[in-house]
Automatic annotation (TrEMBL), chain A:
PANTHER family: AMINO ACID ABC TRANSPORTER PERMEASE PROTEIN, BRANCHED-CHAIN AMINO ACID TRANSPORT SYSTEM PERMEASE PROTEIN LIVH
UniProt record, GO biological process: amino acid transport
Primary location: membrane
Record region (Disordered): 641-680
Stretches that traverse the bilayer: 6-24, 31-50, 56-82, 94-112, 143-162, 189-208, 214-233, 240-259, 265-287, 324-344, 350-371, 378-398, 404-425, 432-451, 476-494, 525-547, 559-587, 599-617
Membrane topology: Multi-pass membrane protein
Ranges of compositional bias, category Low complexity: 641-655
Subcellular locations according to the entry: Cell membrane
InterPro entries: ABC_transp_permease, BCAA_transport_permease, LivM-like
One GO cellular component term noted in the UniProt record for this chain: plasma membrane
Name assigned to this protein: Branched-chain amino acid ABC-type transport system, permease component
Alphabetically ordered keywords of this record: Amino-acid transport, Cell membrane, Membrane, Transmembrane, Transmembrane helix, Transport
From TrEMBL, chain B:
Pfam families: ABC_tran
Keyword match Nucleotide-binding: yes
GO biological process, one term: L-amino acid transport
Keywords: Amino-acid transport, ATP-binding, Nucleotide-binding, Transport
Source organism per UniProt: Trujillonella endophytica
This protein's name: Branched-chain amino acid transport system ATP-binding protein
Lineage: Bacteria, Bacillati, Actinomycetota, Actinomycetes, Geodermatophilales
Length: 680, 242
């Protein structure tokens, strides 16, 4: 038993370092760092580069990686990204960190190349020494992990509790504005917090690499498991996060004493333990109504904050026209769909196959347009619903000999209740909790369903034929485009319907919507159901295009890339979804074919960077470009803008009206006529 | 430098402030000489707190200049402005609620090189109740005690100018007296005070000069003693002028 507990403490220690770092950076900066895994991978990859590829000794490699490279990475990311995000909406913060998680690993791989051996050494010398503790054996890697956690806790708690630096960090947690009014630069404190966070991420990455492997996927799984501890800590209690993380690690290993992890049952149960913890704590907090998003800063911080730049809100405010005919948005859509419709006949078989794949993904991306663009919710499990649609449709075809298209369209209906249940469970939670729960749900389904036989089938999944009338790439592309257009029209109509208006009202202000008598639950469930159906249909089309379900292609990590591509193009535009889907599939191949195979990941980096750009342009590339074009056409006939009544800032005198008033107390102004001006 | 700049501690010239699309201040000009007090009066939404925030660097001006102690601080950060000697006590209990009383006071001393113990002793001497509650979280103090803590954070660091934004808001009359006594002590120590206050009559009795803000513009400015009751009623209404 002791050996299981000791092994569990090793795993729990890594969870604890990750969870502790996530909590500290969240409370200090208001940003939940979804790019933690990407940062962990980046530092671990750099350590591997120094240790293995450059033959450095362990200690200098660790010192340079953890205390030079990692802090420099953290400070750089703060300077270019995180400092712009503090007072942004949760949606923008999450999207930006999703973008970072997408862009950073391929950037590192572009620089250092993919690791040659995914089983990287940790901080202990090889061959691994073993130690006997009370009759149980632990290896040097485990010992390094324990020491790592103890050092982190002692140094971390000591710094936070007993030093001026810690005092400033805790002050910053309370209020950035008040901290600056006290003469302490919040920027410098945040810089230090992000440097420390990157160091902790790197430490977790280096420690997990020997057992889980040096890959983004393994780091993402680690992060997803650490989320459970973070949720248990309600995102803000460091001791609780560390305690639950250790408990999860121990539970995960102790269970293996009683359940054979190599059995089917064991293989399903063991990786699910962190997610079971999360579910339990979530239900507990949700039932007690204690799971809302943390509001960054104090009253003063909120008073000086301006519009948060939520993409689902901003584009609703700035974009759009109510004209049915000659509406620029509709015109652009028709033109772009027309161009895509011409493409299959002009491309060879290979490229038209890619185009069909891009259109299939575009269908799935429409689910984000619904749930994020219309519903204002950050769901990270749309790719899982797509995978569910693919797997279920393939099973219906394989076991019941349904027609593939019917299996996709009707099978998707059976996935809808899953989305609705998740929607119902998370509706009372804050946006951040929703993101964490859906990402964790995706990881769980990947482990419990997609990676299990008969669905996995050595990675190729089950066969999923195309409909008999659309077996060629060209025909299938047309079929996909037709389904995309139908769903897009449906979304446009939903947007214009009473239910769509209710969605808009809920997106702008839930409390305001409630005062109008709108049911927030009903509205969000409707969006959840529609989005889940759309994702499942998209998944079915992806599988039909590939001829097989390919379960690995529905990994939640891939879902982050999908989302990054979509928000780069625009979260509320149907055409943006079509462009995003096609670019997602075709751009890497374009780079690989016409530039160099080494640069195939460059588009992914660009998509990630595009999502980072959300902090500056929340409306996305498509809407932004459309607005620029409209400005170009409208330049010659621009007239003075009429400010509608009630517009903020519309009241008050113009500069010339008050420009000649000298109100210096030493020389009192003479005011011709004093009126109460409605202020009494 | 003009003559008026050389005698002024704070000179605000044609200041304008925007919150996104909304403009809150229009062409505000004020002048605070060394060791003087200016009362800023106005009804809700007039732009008083925005003026305070713009002077302390919390919100950037969209136009105009702010000269403090001979230097143009219009584009300075709040941290740099605080270090230059301008202390802003914001509206609504300007304390760190999750830090203890002692930690709040230590935060106020982060810019001070030496004599920190003496400054802390001075704060506890001025407000003995804070000494008794030094290990208590500031968020658990009463409203009056939080204002004392806020005032202590300003009094212990010898600033050149203090901006006191609605310090008496929501306090019992006795505690309002404490606030005004504390601000009086600041003036005795040579500190200039910009006071934003709901109790217009008390503010005018305290200050040398006064301005009235209305919808983001200065609609009256002059000596505090010249601001008669009729004027205050016209601008502020009966309730606030009381």
């Amino acid at each position: 038993m002791l050996s299981y507990v000791l092994a569990g403490l090793g795993l729990g220690s890594i969870y604890a370092i990750a969870a502790g770092s996530l909590v500290i950076t969240y409370v200090a900066s208001g940003i939940f760092n979804l790019a933690f895994a990407a940062m962990a991978y980046s530092v671990a990859r750099f350590y591997y580069f120094l240790l293995v590829e450059e033959d450095w000794a362990i200690i200098p490699a660790a010192i340079v990686s953890l205390f030079v490279f990692a802090p420099a990475l953290g400070m750089f990311l703060y300077a270019v990204l995180f400092r712009h995000l503090r007072l942004r909406s949760t949606l923008v913060k999450l999207m930006a960190t999703v973008g970072l998680s997408v862009a950073l690993p391929p950037l590192i791989n572009l620089w250092l190349e993919q690791p040659t051996d995914p089983t990287a050494p940790g901080l202990a010398p090889r061959p691994l020494a073993t130690y006997d503790i009370f009759g149980s054996t632990i290896n040097a890697d485990q010992l390094a992990t324990y020491i790592g956690l103890v050092v982190v806790l002692i140094v971390g708690v000591g710094l936070l509790r007993f030093t001026n630096v810690g005092l400033k960090v805790r002050a910053l947690v309370d209020s950035e504005a008040l901290t600056s009014l006290s003469g302490t630069s919040p920027g410098r404190v945040s810089l230090g917090v992000w440097a420390a966070s990157a160091t902790l991420a790197g430490l977790a990455g280096i420690l997990i690499a020997p057992t889980a492997g040096l890959s983004v996927g393994s780091m993402t799984f680690l992060m997803s498991a650490a989320f459970a501890a973070v949720v248990a800590a309600k995102l803000r209690s460091l001791p609780l996060a560390v305690g639950v993380a250790l408990l999860m690690g121990v539970a995960t290993n102790v269970v293996q004493k009683y359940i054979d992890p190599s059995s089917d049952f064991g293989a399903a149960v063991v990786p699910s333990i962190p997610f079971a913890f999360m579910l339990l704590f979530l239900l507990f907090y949700a039932l007690r109504g204690q799971a809302g998003d943390l509001v960054a800063g104090g009253a003063l911080d909120r008073a000086i904050a301006t519009q948060g730049g939520d993409p689902s809100v901003v584009s609703a405010v700035t974009g759009g026209s109510n004209r049915l005919i000659l509406n620029p948005g509709v015109l652009a859509g028709v033109i772009f769909v027309g161009i895509v419709a011409f493409m299959p006949g002009m491309l060879d078989r290979f490229w038209s196959g890619l185009l069909a794949g891009g259109i299939a993904i575009a269908i799935a991306l429409l689910s984000y347009t619904l749930v994020t663009g219309e519903g204002g919710m950050v769901w990270l499990s749309q790719i899982t619903f797509a995978g569910g649609g693919a797997v279920l449709a393939a099973e219906l075809v394989r076991n019941y000999e349904w027609d593939p298209l019917v299996a996709v369209l009707l099978g998707a209906v059976f996935i809808v209740p899953v989305g609705v249940i998740i929607g119902l469970l998370t509706i009372r939670l804050g946006n951040l909790y929703v993101a964490l729960v859906t990402l964790t749900f995706g990881s769980l389904i990947q482990t419990l369903v997609f990676a299990r036989d008969p669905f996995y089938n050595f990675g190729s999944g089950q066969p999923m034929p195309r409909p008999e009338f659309a077996t060629t790439n060209d025909d299938f592309a047309y079929l996909g485009l037709a389904v995309f257009v139908i769903l897009a029209i449906l979304i446009v109509n939903v947007r214009r319907s009473t239910a769509g208006l209710a969605m808009s009202a809920v997106r702008f202000s839930e409390n305001g919507a409630k005062t109008l008598g709108i049911s927030v639950v009903q509205t969000k469930v409707l969006v959840s159901g529609l989005a889940t159906y759309t994702a499942a249909v998209g998944g079915g089309f992806i599988a039909m295009n590939a001829g097989s379900t390919l379960p690995d292609s529905f990994n939640p990590t891939g879902g982050l890339v999908w989302l990054a591509v979509l928000v780069t193009m625009g979260a509320r535009s149907n055409i943006a979804a079509l462009i995003a889907g096609i670019m997602f599939v075709m751009m890497p191949q374009v780079f690989s074919t016409y530039v160099s195979h080494d640069y195939a990941d460059v588009p992914i980096i660009l998509f990630g960077l595009g999502a980072l750009g959300l902090a500056l342009h929340p409306e996305g590339v498509v809407i932004q470009t459309g607005n620029n074009i409209m400005k170009l056409f409208g330049r010659g006939r621009r007239t003075k803008a009429v400010v509608p009544p009630g517009t903020p800032g519309a009241s008050g005198p113009s500069a010339h009206e008050s420009g000649d008033v000298d109100a210096t107390p030493g020389s009192p102004v003479s005011v011709e006529k004093i009126t109460a001006g409605g202020q009494a | 430098m003009t003559t008026s700049e050389s005698t002024s501690l704070l000179q605000v010239q044609h200041l304008a402030v925007r919150y996104g699309a909304a403009q809150s201040l229009f062409d505000v000009s004020i002048d605070i000489p060394v060791n003087s007090a200016l009362a800023v009066l106005g009804s809700n939404g007039a732009g008083k707190s925005t003026l305070a925030r713009a002077l302390s660097g919390l919100v950037p001006p969209s136009g105009g200049r702010v000269i403090f102690d001979g230097k143009d601080i219009s584009k300075w950060s709040p941290t740099k402005i605080r270090r230059a000697g301008l202390v802003h006590l914001p509206e609504g209990r300007g304390v760190f609620p999750a830090l203890t009383v002692m930690e709040n006071l230590r935060m106020a001393l982060t810019t001070q090189r030496g004599g920190k113990d003496a400054s802390l002793d001075h704060a506890f001497e001025l407000f003995p109740v804070l000494g008794q509650r030094r290990k208590q979280l500031a968020g658990t103090l009463s409203g009056g005690e939080q204002q004392m803590l806020s005032l202590a954070r300003a009094l212990m660091v010898s600033p050149k100018l203090v901006i006191a934004d609605e310090m008496s808001l929501g306090l019992a009359p006795k505690l309002v007296d404490v606030v005004f006594e504390s601000l009086g002590k600041m003036r005795e120590a040579g500190v200039a005070v910009l006071m934003i206050e709901q109790f217009a009559s008390r503010a005018l009795a305290f200050a040398d000069q006064a301005i009235i803000l209305q919808r983001g513009t200065v609609t009256w400015a002059g000596r505090a003693e010249d601001a008669g009751e009729e004027l205050l009623h016209a601008y502020l209404g009966g309730a606030t002028a009381a």
